Each structure stands twice: as C-alpha cells, then as structure tokens.
Amino acid sequence: MAETRKAGRYIVPVAVAGVAAATIGLVPALAASGDPDLPEITAQQLIEKIAASDTQTLSGTFRISTDLGLPLEGLASGLTSGLGGGSGTADPSRKLTELISGSHTLRVAADGPERQKLTLLDGSDEYSLIHNGDDVWAYDSKSKEVFHEKAPADAGPKDTPKAELPGTPKQLADEVLKAAGDTTSITVDGTAKVAGRDAYQLVIKPKQAGSTVESVKIAVDAANGTPLKFTLASVEGGKPVVDAGFTKVDFSKPAASDFTFKAPEGAKVTEGGAEKAAGEKDGPFDGPLPEGLEEAFGGFGPGAGAGKGDVNVIGEGWTAIAKIDTGAPAPKTDEAPKEIQGLLGSFGDKVTGKFGSGTVFKTKIVNALLTDDGKVYVGAVTKDALVNAANAGK
Predict the structure, then answer these.
(1) 61 and 99: one domain?
(2) What's residue 94's pLDDT?
(3) Nearest one of 258, 381, 237 to 320, comparing CA atoms
(4) CA-CA distance, 379 to 377, in Å (whole number)?
(5) Residue 192's closest CA among 160, 161, 218, 157?
(6) Is 209 domain-assigned?
(7) N or C: which end of the chain has fewer CB within 10 A?
(8) What is the reported pLDDT for 276?
(9) CATH number of 337's domain
(10) Which segments in the chain show pLDDT lower than 50?
(11) Are residues 270 and 300 in the same domain?
(12) Over the stretch 40-91, which tens digit does the pLDDT of each residue have?
C-alpha cells in the first residue's frame, strides 16, 4: 500500500486542523454589506447543488487562517528538537505543516483530476506543489530544494498520486457534509459576495450539547455550486478555528504551462516515497494517521473490537468519543526531552476521577484524554465529557 501512503501525504497534514475538518464540521464568520439578492433556496437544494458541482478548472487566490489555540511556536520547536524533524526540505509532508497556524495566502490552479498547482506565498519566497499526471513536484525557492515523487511504472490510474488542493473550501465542505446526520442542523442563512461572486451561505450546527464546535458556515457559488469560503468556529469564541476563502477566482481553463516544472539548475533534488525502501520514514509527519486513528478521526463510525490498539466509539454525532487502548502505560512526562516537557505542560491539564488520573490535551476543537494506564479518549467534545466517558469505564 505504498501508493496509498504516498498519496495521503499530499492532503495537507494540517495535524489537528485536518483532524477537526475530517472528523466533525466547521464554522461561521462571513457577513458583508451589499449582499446579493438571489432566489430563495432550501438547505436540501443547496446541498444538492454542491453535490452536483463538477468544477474541473479554476485558478485563483485564497487565504487560510488557522487558530487551534495551541502554543504552536513551542510545538514546532518541540517536534524539531525532540523528534529529530529536519528543516530546509521541499517535502510537502513537512513544508505544508506551516498551514497549522497563522494566516497564509495561496495561489491555486486546477485542470481536471490530473493537473493541479498550489503556491504558498511568504513574502518574496514561494513554495510550489505541482501535480501533473504521474508526477508530483515541489519547489522551495528559499532553500532552492526540489522534491519529486512518481508512481511506479505498473501503477494504474487509481494508484497515481493525487495532489489535492489542501484546505480549499471545496475539500473542507465535502468533509463536513459527509459527517452531517440526524444530530445536525443545516440551514441557509442569507447571501454574500465572495471573490466577486454571488453566493448562498449554508450554516451547519450541532443539535447536541457538549460539542466544541459552535457552527460551520460555507459560502456556495450561486451559479455553479462550488464552495467559495469555509469557516469553522469553536464554542470558546474568539477567532475562527479555520477560515479559508477565495479572494480571487476564475473558472476558465488555466494554461498548460502552469503545470510544467523543470528543476532549476543547481537545485538539490530529493526523490521520495515509492523509490524508498519499504518502511523508511521521512519524519514525524510522514504518511497518514495509523489505521486505527484514521477510523477514529474519519467520521466516528462504529468502532472496531475492544482489543489493544483497536478503536471503540462512544456515542454518536458531534459528541462521539473514540476510545483507544494502547495496551501500555502512558509515557512519563518527566522522562521526555525538555522541549517536549514544556510543550506538554503548556497545553495539557492534569485530571483525576474514578478512572484514575491522566492528562487532557486541548485545542479549540479536538480534545484528548490520555490516562496514566494507557487509554486514550478523543473527540470534538469538552474536557468534562472526556472525563465522564473515562469514569463510565466504557
């Protein structure tokens, strides 16, 4: 399954942000003066419009802002120092983790499923990720390094690496709508102008109490059903957890030259993935989540068995909690490198209860309880909900 592992690396490893998007939904924050006067539409009709949208070509610029409520400078430092992560590489699995915090401007282009390009703009420096057929290229203008990955010669179309545009409103909206169910309220809340386009605003909210998600707002192009803006907000208030939207967009076919790439003379080229020995790791963010965690974070469906390392799901909908028994006592914080100790202490709360004791690691959306005897409870729920689940001994 090397190709599957490889393809997953190009769906931005936005760590907890990606988990939040894939697991639950996202939220509001869109209102503007001069909202367009559009024909009325029901929520069901708008969802059908998104599902029927078949936008194959586009180019434009969008902004993505992420605020997980994490000490992200410490996180980056701790992971680099404590886990041996490198720097100065064009590998997308490392470079795109920058989207985990702050605000970023990205330029995108797409021409069907075989050609996409994303450029992360950072002052005068640019980082480009290009998918053209069987090839995926990445180039960091600052370090002048190139990363290249190619599918094996005998790979079929389904095995070709797909460099999906990470964090786009379309990708985020699809994940939210897949997760919506009977525990969700979906309404249409007016209209808006986004990137010069008329749009409807779809609002998604949990019906259940105890979720950390306040709501999700998706601005949907009134003409073609393409999501143009996506905002996720936490019940904690403050800045949105994720706010991603186009500032410019054009749905005409981009030039073929937009997707061609030739390594600059003198650039260091690193070949990735399929050419490496099986089992070799590039770094702490290499590849998708382990299978068990993917199930826990990917929709909270019915859990697996209760064996060690398996996932059990407690509850349903927005307040579902995944329980994982690691089968081993939790590592002692005081035995970790100093950088990691400081990181854990800055966003972990010690808790006790009938279950014993443990630590709750918190963000504005996803919280996780790691008990001292090695059980993990994780979900988009409050700290109290995690402690109650552990006390219930489920």
Answers:
(1) yes
(2) 75
(3) 381
(4) 7
(5) 218
(6) yes
(7) N
(8) 46
(9) 3.30.310
(10) 1-33, 72-88, 152, 154-166, 274-308
(11) no
(12) 999 989 998 998 888 999 999 999 998 887 654 444 444 434 333 444 478 8
Statement to judge: residues 301 and 371 lie in one domain: yes
Looking at residue 105, the DSSP 8-state letter turns out to be E
Q: Where are the beta strands (DSSP E) in the chain?
A: 57-66, 102-111, 115-122, 125-132, 135-140, 145-150, 184-194, 197-206, 213-221, 227-234, 242-250, 268-271, 311-314, 321-325, 348-353, 356-362, 367-371, 375-379
Q: In 3D, which of 73, 91, 175 has the Cα closest to residue 127?
A: 91
Both tokens assigned to 220: 């949907």
In a domain, 281, yes or no: no
Query: What is the rounded distance in angstroms from the CA atom of residue 172 to the CA atom of residue 23?
Result: 11
Q: Which two tokens stand for residue 296?
A: 């826990």
Q: Which of 356, 390, 354, 389 is nearest to 372 (CA)?
A: 356
Axis crossing angle, helix 43-52 with helix 169-179, rounded to the nearest 10: 120
Say whether both 325 and 183 belong to one domain. Answer: no
Nearest to residue 241, comparing CAs of 217, 210, 207? 217
Identify whether 259 is part of a domain.
yes
Residues 247 and 306 in one domain: no
- Domain closes at, from 241, 275, 309: 275
| Residue in the block written with tokens 């009977």 | 182
Q: How many domains does the chain have?
A: 2
Per-residue model confidence (pLDDT) at position 222: 97
The answer for residues whose C-beta is within 8 angstroms of residue 269's C-beta and 6 or more apart is 145, 146, 147, 148, 263
Residues of the domain holding 342 = 291-391
